[in-house]
Design brief:
Number of helices: 11
Strand content: 15-25%
Number of strands: 16
Radius of gyration: 22 Å
Structural class: alpha/beta
Helix content: 10-25%
């Protein structure tokens, strides 16, 4: 009783906003002014039972593992009709103890499905910073609400890219937190060209720019670097965030590390992995047996299709229905091994994006290497990645081949 009577500022940190009244049947008011009942309220006792901290990077056992399909339903999936369709499972992990958390869902097509990550950072003064939102299902919101009970309410929501597979969730997610301040990468675009409001963006969204340095409310805790390129039919923009206190670099698609085993969220329903494990039509409509070896085989083939245009070991053959693919040899296994367990810039990104403006891409990498990070959290594949600027320089070495000048990176270690 004595603890519950403390002022909100002392419980949640100086300057923190009053946490949401999640223990009562509160209602949120959306941007249009209409109110709707919030999801099932949670008490502090619920949070204490459900939220268990672990060492950084290990699995966090929460009630999400028992969530029903109703909690995982995403009815707006047709806005970007990709797999896994209407059901979006969410898995939460603690990446940096009491500081940084990962929320992972799935996204892909043609059974090439990988994890997509929203990163949530606990702010020093109380509250949460949300980087690259995912689908706000009931399960996702409940898991986030548990963090609100621990660290304070969601204060800032950031869309760090112009990529459609990330921005499709921004509007719906922001509507769940009408009190939060919203920020987005510059040069958002669509075909045909439409105002951001037509893309589902809320009205009050601040565009991120390096020219406004010092004007952002989160600026004391984060530094930023912006990749701003024009490629093909539109811009490719990504804003990287460097969290100073944990020396963590948050990126979207700049780089990643591919694990040998499929992420936990990819194994909730292993059907896509088992389909990918098939070699040709002789496997027919019957999937491979659900074994650990076949899941890993399917994951390794998923890796090839997700980061390369077309693996050399596979041939597209429509007459080989239902697989439509024939794997000619096993050389693909060695190719996968060459891209695993190391910091990597996706070959597709190298070819389609960075090659269009290598000097602009190199300048962006130089800015990132000025940050004294010791880990990287990307929006896909493994996290956290224990890496330093030296590792990033090595991953981006391909940019120096076509660069005019000495190609040196700044030393930050």
């Amino acid at each position: 009783q004595r603890r519950s009577m403390k002022p909100a500022a002392s419980r949640w940190g100086a300057g923190a906003r009053t946490p949401p009244a999640v223990g009562s049947p509160a209602q949120r008011r959306d941007a249009s002014g209409s109110s709707r009942a919030r999801r099932r309220p949670w008490s502090r006792a619920d949070s204490a039972r459900a939220f268990k901290t672990t060492e950084a990077g290990t699995r966090t056992k929460t009630t999400s593992e028992e969530a029903g399909e109703d909690e995982q339903r995403w009815d707006l999936w047709l806005a970007l009709p990709l797999q896994p369709g209407k059901r979006r499972v969410t898995r939460r992990r603690e990446l940096v103890k009491n500081k940084i958390y990962s929320f992972e869902q799935l996204l892909g097509t043609l059974d090439v499905i990988v994890n997509q990550r929203m990163t949530v950072v606990a702010l020093r003064g109380g509250g949460l910073f949300v980087h690259s939102p995912v689908a706000p299902t009931k399960e996702c919101l409940r898991l986030l609400e548990e963090l609100e009970l621990k660290h304070g309410s969601v204060r800032y929501i950031v869309l760090p890219t112009t990529a459609v597979e990330h921005k499709v969730f921004f509007g719906p997610f922001c509507r769940e937190f009408p009190e939060a301040e919203l920020f987005a990468a510059p040069r958002q675009w669509s075909i045909p060209p439409l105002p951001n409001s037509f893309l589902g963006f809320p009205r009050k969204v601040t565009t991120i720019s390096t020219e406004k340095r010092g004007e952002y409310p989160w600026q004391r805790e984060f530094d930023i670097a912006i990749l701003n390129l024009t490629v093909g039919i539109g811009p490719f923009v990504e804003v990287a965030f460097y969290h100073k206190s944990t020396r963590t670099l948050l990126v979207t698609d700049t780089c990643f590390m591919i694990p040998e085993e499929p992420p936990e969220v990819c194994q909730v329903d292993p059907t896509p992995l088992l389909k990918r494990a098939r070699d040709d039509k002789r496997d027919g409509m019957v999937m491979s047996k659900d074994t650990e070896a076949n899941r890993i085989k399917g994951w390794w083939k998923t890796i090839l299709f997700s980061i390369f245009f077309q693996p050399s070991s596979v041939e597209f053959a429509p007459w080989e229905w239902p697989t439509a693919l024939v794997w000619r040899d096993d050389r693909w296994v060695e190719k996968v091994k060459t891209v695993q367990n190391k910091l990597l810039v996706a070959p597709i990104l190298q070819e389609l994006v960075f090659s269009r403006d290598p000097n602009g891409a190199l300048e962006y990498m130089r800015k990132l290497c000025k940050f004294r990070f010791r880990r990287i959290v990307p929006a896909h594949f493994d996290a956290p990645i224990e890496a330093t600027p030296r590792d990033l320089r090595r991953a981006a070495a391909f940019l120096k081949d076509g660069e005019d000048g000495d190609g040196d990176y700044p030393e930050s270690e």
